[in-house]
UniProtKB/TrEMBL annotation, chains A, B:
Gene3D superfamilies attached to this UniProt entry: Aspartate Aminotransferase, domain 1, Type I PLP-dependent aspartate aminotransferase-like (Major domain)
Matches recorded under InterPro entries: Aminotransferase_I/II_large, NHTrfase_class1_PyrdxlP-BS, PyrdxlP-dep_Trfase, PyrdxlP-dep_Trfase_major, PyrdxlP-dep_Trfase_small
Domain of life: Bacteria
Name of the protein in its database record: Aminotransferase
SUPFAM superfamilies (alphabetical): PLP-dependent transferases
Cofactor: pyridoxal 5'-phosphate
């Protein structure tokens, strides 16, 4: 009676719902403060003061038509500010024209894929990955191709990538800092990737786009500099949102930055703006376009996340967990002590620990910890993590 | 190099862009006040005071996590308020569960279609219609089937509808008050439609959904009561946005109301919420969900639009134009004096009149006037309309 594919997917994804319901059940039995919910990536620091102040100022100013339609690509002055900032950060010369404002990164990814994909063309993703990439690719007529990462670094396996590229490969989705591993891809790995792509483009006489999904780009630690996909890949489409950098995930505000080095870039931008419209997004929310325009050079206090990472990472390592020390995002992706990560997730539940099994990211045998919880909650959760570890070692 | 279909569509839709550019050119030459732009449906009355006041209050209150994620279906308290209001207006018993908040009606339509369509299933639209319906249907794997309206009333031709229904018919999109005609479908025509659908559902042993796109539902004149699709059609999915009722089109806020009478309605609602997520909308913008929750029972001053309709309609009729007097939305859809409506649009341009040809709505020989302009602009435009008419009569 309904879409068979969607109903089928609903059944498959029901373990996420089951977990959420499990959490709700535990909270009711034990109280919210006794349940350690590391499952959800819902940024908890408040937005920066400048962001809040801009919002207040704009709402009190109450300019006429401030909630009206603007061009589908977004307000020109906002696009201009984003372009200037991203040019400064990446050293790639962008103008207003290269920026299309979107309803967050989810919208941006769908719009970018719709603009480039012909039926059956392939899009490569590196496991582990944010599982909705596969839906986004499928929504827009493409075929997802999963390429493994190097388990020692959780960076893309470049040989595996090369072997996976076919004449139908239209794009590669790169996500760094990565969800779920928190890993920041090194400049050298991205440059190797660029070489392989160039070689294959020549071999097959094709164009392969790199869609660089960077919602965690401001959430990096240890004074590292995030290598810029826009700088490294000629055919790059950068996707960003302010969900994490400004803690505005509910407001659905982000943008696409299109590399000026793409051949026929104006046509691609036209296609992207058109897709923003016909996919039903129409435009990024008006008020929050103006809000983020004053915050493009700022972010929430990243130190809040860093303290949590340090406490959690150091504690888990001491307890015997094995985990790559990530330099970005707000996730840890440790190895489960048993291969069956669903079983491991269930064992953790006994200690009121809510963890997401790696299978949810096409990487079984691991689990994701999202540290969008207070330092206090992390401290309180440590005995639970320890007791869980002791079951296995 | 990009999506061939999208690039092809871009070329086809370029006359809209050409028109926009034409307008910009005219404004530069003659000044904005000398150009009469009736092309864009961008509501110009300001939002109601209660809406603005709620926005101010919420922003100044600045509650923690107010810009964070909420369930994909929207805030429960907001869904509750919408459910209560729509139940009251339609006499259909809705609960929070039946309401899914969306990024405007464009999102809602895509989400609803995605949730029900299997590949190649057919969706009927009545010409003239908002042309993006065809994109929305195509985005989600369906096939658009165009059924004509009765030219005397611009209501659906029920015989033509009956003849167009096949075993593959999955949905009918109904849009009343209508864009581009402004016509409000009568209760009797909708009841006839419901009978035909029931008969065909029995004949083919299928379910045919009525997707009722109602963004203009509050913009009705002459004290008429808008017949409710939710009440008349058992298998109905109502789609609404606050773009027109509260003049918030740039903020992308709307909802889906699912009829409680649909078989397996809970599964459909799950599918809709899932599609809201995987299509990349994720959730309706957080702040504006809370804003509209306090304004579900109000609207902008409809009298503003009614005055414009009356002035324009009465003047055009006196000049010799032929036009159905519409009882809703903010459009007139008069007959062009010549069959070639593109040529007619070009002739109008000579008088600095920007009109949209009916071909843009799959109804050649007519043109659309959007009266989202001040009464003063309408007054100033009348000599131009008159001079244009005199060319033909």
């Amino acid at each position: 009676m309904f879409s068979e594919k969607i109903v089928d997917n609903l059944t498959k994804s029901s373990w996420i719902r089951a977990m959420f319901e499990e959490g709700e059940k535990l909270r009711k039995i034990y109280g919210a403060d006794k349940v350690f919910d590391f499952s959800i990536g819902n940024p908890d620091p408040e937005p920066p003061e400048v962001t809040k102040d801009t919002l207040k100022r704009l709402v009190l100013e109450d300019k006429p038509k401030m909630h009206g339609y603007m061009p589908n690509a977004g307000y020109p002055d906002v696009r201009e500010k984003v372009a200037i900032q991203i040019s400064k950060e990446t050293n790639v010369p962008l103008t207003m024209k290269n920026i299309v404002m979107t309803c967050g990164a989810g919208a941006a990814l769908n719009v970018a894929l719709k603009a480039i994909l012909n039926p059956g063309e392939e899009v490569i993703v590196f496991a582990p990955f944010f599982v909705e990439y596969l839906s986004y690719i499928d929504n827009n007529g493409g075929k997802g191709v999963i390429v493994k990462s190097n388990k020692d670094t959780f960076e893309p396996d470049i040989n595996a990538l090369e072997a996976s590229i076919t004449p139908k490969t239209k794009a590669v989705i790169v996500n760094t800092p990565n969800n779920p591993t928190g890993v920041v891809y090194s400049e050298s790995i991205l440059k190797n990737m660029a070489e392989v792509l160039k070689k294959k483009e020549k071999e097959f006489n094709t164009t392969i786009f790199v869609i660089s999904d960077e919602p965690y780009r401001k959430v990096v630690y240890d004074n590292i500099k995030l290598p810029s996909a826009l700088k490294i890949f000629e055919n790059s489409i950068m996707v960003d949102s302010f969900s994490k950098s400004l803690s505005l995930p509910g407001e659905r505000i982000g943008y696409i930055a299109v590399s000026p080095y793409i051949k026929d870039v104006d046509l691609l931008i036209d296609a992207i703006v058109y897709c923003n419209r016909v996919l039903g997004f129409v435009n990024a929310p008006a008020l929050f376009q103006k809000v983020i325009a004053e915050s493009v050079d700022t972010s929430v206090d990243i130190n809040i996340y860093k303290e949590r990472r340090d406490l959690l990472y150091n504690s888990l390592i001491k307890m015997g967990y094995s985990c790559i020390k990530p330099q970005g995002a707000f996730y840890l992706f440790p190895k489960a002590f048993i291969e069956d990560d669903i079983e491991f997730k269930n064992r953790a539940l006994k200690y009121n620990l809510l963890l997401v099994p790696g299978s949810g990211f096409y990487c079984p045998g691991y689990f994701r910890i999202s540290y969008c919880v207070s330092l206090k909650t992390i401290e309180n959760s440590l005995p639970a993590f320890e007791a869980l570890a002791k079951e296995f070692i």
